[in-house]
TrEMBL record:
This is PKD domain-containing protein. Residues 55-104 form the PKD domain. It holds the Pfam family PKD_4. Residues 1-22 form the signal peptide. Keywords: Signal. InterPro entries: Ig-like_fold, PKD/Chitinase_dom, PKD_dom, PKD_dom_sf.
Amino acid sequence: MKKLAYKSIYLAALSALFFVGGCETDVNTNQEPISFSADIFSSVKGKKVAFQGLTNNAVSWSWNFGDGASSNQQNPVHVYSDSGYYTATLTATDEAGTTITKEVQLALDITPYVLLTGGATDEDGKTWRLSSAHSDSDYFGNADAELTPFDGAPNPLPAGIFGAGLGMAEVYEDEFTFYFDGRYEMDLKADNAAFSGLVYQFVADGGASVVNDGGADFGLCTASFSPDNNATFSYTEDSVFTVSSVYGGTVSFEGVSSLDFSESAYVGLLDFERKVMIQEINDNTMRLVMFLAASPDFIGVNTNAVILTFEVVP
């Protein structure tokens, strides 16, 4: 009789356990369903990007990679052809047809050329102007191999020197736009005048084009100039840059990047030498070395270097 009683108690306890478990299952079944959501995770290596569509209750995924390519996979891998800045977009859809759109900003394999032009997807190009704030590395130099500072000129150049010091504040307004495909535009604003070398202008037309000679003490002026609507530029990286110089005939700089322009185009300073050297460039500023032939005794031969910082036009 005791064994039978113990068995009955055991079965009763087991039944109670199943009953409690069943109640818990019913409670879980009645919980609110997971809501529809979507987000993006991306992993980048060079120009190759692995995307993950982090979604709940989505039934389809539509990706726009920002370069004209697309995918309907949840977790696609895409290789971009060009370095640059891209916006990738995921549109996730649930069973009811509701959609959620998410974006991720990508900066892929950013090279100095992309920093200069804004990249292949920037249809407006990237526009630069001379920085009126200048930097601690802006100065007037000599056209020698060391670009030594020019005696008698402030070093570094103080903020706004071309305005307050030389009366040529208009040179800070001129804008220069570089496009990824090599096109180039110059906007010389209201005065239609280029920041220029004084000797160059006197050789060109006897000085008739000079608008403002406030920088004459440094061989500088502004002069009327008509930009070429079909101008182009070329960018060369890690090369030998050679220009004329009164210090030995020529001077060369090894392992530098440079910009060159079609015949009737220039950047920053218009003089005999249109080719310029890039000393430093980042997303918002670049520093250029522009050469100047400031002596009437050595026509067309560089005597000086003008090292100036440019800033991106917002």
